[in-house]
Amino acid sequence: MLLLVAAAWAAFPEDVSITAMDEFAGASTYLPDTTQAGNDFVVTGYQTMVKELGTAIANKPMAPGESLGMNGFQVGIANTFAFVRTGSTDGTHPTGWDLADADEDPQTYLFIPWLQVRKGLPASLEIGANAGWIGLTRTGVFGVYGRWSVLEGYRRVPDLALQVGYAGYVGNDELELGVMDMSATLGYSLPFGVTQGINQAVFSPYVGIGLNRIHAAPRGDLSRTDLEGRITEVSGFKADTEHFVEGFVPVQIGGGFRIVNGDFAATLAATYSPGLIATVNLGFGFVY
Predict the structure, then answer these.
(1) Which residues, at least 6 apart from 52, have a Cβ–Cβ distance to it below 8 Å?
(2) 52, 145, 149, 167: least buried by Cβ within 10 Å?
(3) How far apart are CA 237 and CA 215, in angstroms?
(4) What confidence category does residue 120 fall into, taking pLDDT thresholds of 50, 70 and 90?
(5) Over 90: is that where the pLDDT of 59 sits?
């Protein structure tokens, strides 16, 4: 991962640049007749981009409904592929990703390799943390969360887990971004193998739904650009009445499965936020 970061920095960084949104194709993006609220393609592109980026970095449903147990511990790696929208949306105006890319040719997806840890606690509680790198950029992600398996281990009732977490975008000196996630996961664990209880694996399918509250703000001085007053702080937290914007609390629907064989665990999950993006997530690790 360190080698990839060094190569990206030297060769082809895909960093998000807010100041780059001031121009596109050698021309200013300030068009006096389209700068009214709701009619400025730069503002619309910026808000859509940060919603998609926030959805991409948010904590993903990489665990079934059951907990690890009081003495349980899991460590592993994962990779997220988030499919963002680039290219012209109306035949004329570029998207926020196009505007914020230094080469004006962004990737159509983000890939984020992660290091993940989870620790079981008493009373079916868990805590976890994720640290990731956004591929071909100089930026990364750090997230933490807590889970509570309200119901687990009953043969006739699915497992149910509730989660609250937060993920922050780090390393970009032009954009501050954070996401608070709240979700519920419903699943079931099915043992299979030659001799159950001795030589067996466990298959755990699950589905979930949640909300991502996204907050974003430009960093640095925009006074020397035509972006000042247009690219502003936006928030999905209603308590922040000055910056609250409808649409910054997207729904996230997800599901997947985990297979545990001995100490080895493999997870495949996908998420979809209606009107925004879909992600595919693959993880491998060890459970103790």
Answers:
(1) 82, 84, 85, 97, 276, 277
(2) 145
(3) 8
(4) very high
(5) yes
Long-range contacts: 207-210, Cβ < 8 Å, 24+? Answer: 207/253, 207/254, 207/255, 208/61, 208/183, 208/184, 208/253, 208/254, 208/255, 209/183, 209/184, 209/251, 209/252, 209/253, 209/254, 210/61, 210/163, 210/181, 210/182, 210/183, 210/184, 210/251, 210/252, 210/254
Over the stretch 137-160, which tens digit does the pLDDT of each residue have? 999 999 999 999 999 988 889 999
Q: Which two tokens stand for residue 278?
A: 């879909």
* Joined tokens for residue 236: 């999905």
Pair 152, 64: CB distance under 8 Å: no
Beta strands in 44-174 (DSSP E): 73-83, 109-121, 125-133, 140-151, 159-170
Residue type, 129: A
* Amino acid occupying residue 155: R
- Taken in order of first residue, the domains within the chain and their CATH numbers are 2-287 (2.40.160.20)
Please identify which residue in the block is written with the tokens 């509250």.
Answer: 213
Cα angle at 214 between 208 and 218, to 5 degrees?
155
Mean pLDDT, residues 177-197 taken together: 88
Mean pLDDT of the chain: 90
pLDDT of amino acid 8:
43
Residues whose CB is less than 8 angstroms from the CB of residue 66 and which lie 6 or more positions away in sequence, other chains included: 149, 152, 153, 159, 161, 187, 189, 204
